[in-house]
Amino acid sequence: MATAHVGGYRPGLVDLKTGQISREIFVNEDIYAEEQERVFARAWLYVGHESQVPNPGDFFVSGMGEESVILTRDRAGQVRVFLNSCRHRGMKVCRYDEGNTTVFTCPYHGWSYGTDGRLVGVPYFREAYHSQLDRLQWGLVEVAQTCVHKGTVWATWDKDAPPFLEYLGDFARYLDQMFDSWDGSDGGTEILGGVQKWLVPSNWKFPAENFSGDSYHNISHRSVDMVGAGPSGSGRRDMPELNLARKLHIAIPDRGHQTTAYLLPREVEVPAGYQHSPVVSDYFKKCEEARRQQRGDWGRLITLVGEVFPSMAFLARQPRTIAVWHPRGPHQTEVWRWFLVDKNAPQDVKNFLRDYYIRYSGPAGMTEQDDMENWGYAHKASRGTIARRYSYSYEQGMGTEVDNYEWEGFSLPGSVTDLTQAKSSEHNLRNLYRRWAEFMEASDWDELASWRRAQRAAAE
User: Fold this and answer.
1) What is the pLDDT of residues 293-310, one digit of tens each?
2) DSSP letters along 368-396, please?
3) Which of 112, 146, 180 is where one domain is finished?
4) Does 184 or 200 have the greater pLDDT score?
5) Helix (H, G, I), strand (E, B), or coil: what is residue 106?
6) 78, 174, 316, 380 from 177: Cα distances, Å
7) Whether residue 183 sits in one domain with residue 289
8) What is the reported pLDDT for 367?
9) Which of 57, 68, 217, 319 is the most buried (most CB within 10 A)?
10) Could you tell me the residue range of the domain that residue 288 belongs to?
11) Could you give the CA distance from residue 133 to residue 126 in angstroms, rounded to a whole number?
């Protein structure tokens, strides 16, 4: 038993040698404050989807950590991301969730900004400022870097952060299993409906670790299995084809991203989905056939759930959803969830999926209700003086990871744990906290980009 740590972060709170992690990193106010500077101000964060701002002047108010940001498309058609805060006195210049505008006008003192962020209107510019205010210096604060990747929009506040695809590294191959069109076309994806938002009384790292690959909490979702609410239409595990597959935890250690996936044998087809709706089932059967034909061995990989460090999670099978864990203090998380479909999917399929997604995920969804209850109670039970003296255990599967896992001649990049026989591991969860600790301890991106040092060493 250790005494609860009173100050901020220090090395040792994440002990990967023993597989133990201090509860302090979830409940400590000082650590939370450091986290905003060291993690959320430096990492690449998911902001939204291009389909939410299809036309010049369209905007969507999103978030990056605790910061409110505006995702917009300017008059030239470029996607931009700005801090949603007036440069005069800090008021939000946009208080609507989404819409279309020519200017963002602060409702406090009337400064107005174009969709390119420039300050274009200042009340009493001649009288009060004597025409001396340098409006070029007082535009909206823009993120340091923006990347549109397969329709998704990402941003970072740090100009020294690596480009987004370098930030993903080998994980891009796994993430794109979700972002690519499933029907084999180049039509891309779009957001189905709006964004669901709700509050959870827990630290943001609880849901982040859950979606990193918590394969141990299936008891939580027994009610979902009993009513057959899974994509197979006959229960989440009623898919005998998967008994022939390898179930894997896949992590990219020097990036902090991870996923859980099934790797099917070559001769086995992907299990049929949505059996209670022949129209939808037939559509996805054709999609799976197209995937296997176009992607070869990569088409055998069924990516299930995963996490892009630090706070973007995804369900890549069906339902295809994106979630972001927005920190709202150490004891609360605001969850946002987007639902993703192929643009070219038939309307009947989109209508079916809209109903299914809401029933399965989100604050009213069966699985999400289970998870929220777990996270909330675990967090509340860890805030006490005595509770904080005892670490959490992340010891499952320690030492069983292999690099460049190979099966039937197909090699997967990253660090892999085979769950087929073991059933469960905390390999991916440890990878999340390894990267979190590196962000908390590193002074800059030169320290964080260990792969660059490795590349330089190999070149020498």
Assistant:
1) 888 889 889 888 999 999
2) HHHHHHHHHHHHHTT-STTGGGSPEE--T
3) 146
4) 200
5) coil
6) 26, 5, 7, 36
7) yes
8) 73
9) 319
10) 170-459
11) 9
Beta-bridge partner residues of 167: none
The structure's pTM equals 0.93
For residue 233, pLDDT beyond 80: no
Residues 370 and 452 in one domain: yes
Range name among 144-148, 345-349, 371-375 with the lowest pLDDT average: 371-375
Same domain, 227 and 91: no
2 is a domain residue: no
Q: Are 297 and 413 in contact (CB under 8 A)?
A: no
Do 212 and 341 belong together in one domain? yes
Written as six digits, the tokens of 202 are: 């827990």
Angle (nearest 5°) at CA 199 between 29 and 350: 140
Same domain, 285 and 350: yes
Q: Tell me the pLDDT band of 234, cut-offs 50, 70 and 90.
A: very low
Instruction: State in Å, rounded, how far the first CA of the chain is from the last one.
Output: 47
What is the share, in percent, of the chain residues with pLDDT greater than 90? 68
Confidence of residue 286 (pLDDT cuts 50, 70, 90): confident
Output the CA angle 30-1-214, nearest 5 degrees: 70
The Cα diameter of the chain in Å comes to 78
Where do runs of H (alpha helix) occur along 96-236? Answer: 164-168, 171-179, 205-213, 222-226
CA distance 136 to 112: 13
Which of 57-61, 280-284, 330-334 shows the lowest per-residue confidence on average (mean pLDDT)? Answer: 280-284
Residue 193, pLDDT score: 86
Co-location of 300 and 435 in the same domain: yes
How far apart, in whole angstroms, are the C-alpha atoms of residue 55 and residue 157? 25
Read off the CATH number of the domain in which 395 is found: 3.90.380.10
Show the CA angle centred on residue 302, arms to residues 154 and 213, nearest 5°: 65
- Are 183 and 298 in a shared domain? yes
3-state secondary structure of 292: helix
Q: Is the pLDDT of residue 273 over 80?
A: no
Sign, CA torsion 269/271/273/277: positive
Question: Which pLDDT belongs to residue 142?
Answer: 98
Burial track 234-270 (b if 16+ CB lie within 10 A, e otherwise): eebeebebbeebbbbbbbbbbbbbbbbbbbbeeeeeb
- Asked, for residue 214, whether it belongs to a domain, the answer is yes
Q: What is the pLDDT of residues 202-219, one digit of tens each?
A: 999 999 999 898 876 666
Report the number of distinct structural domains present in the chain: 2
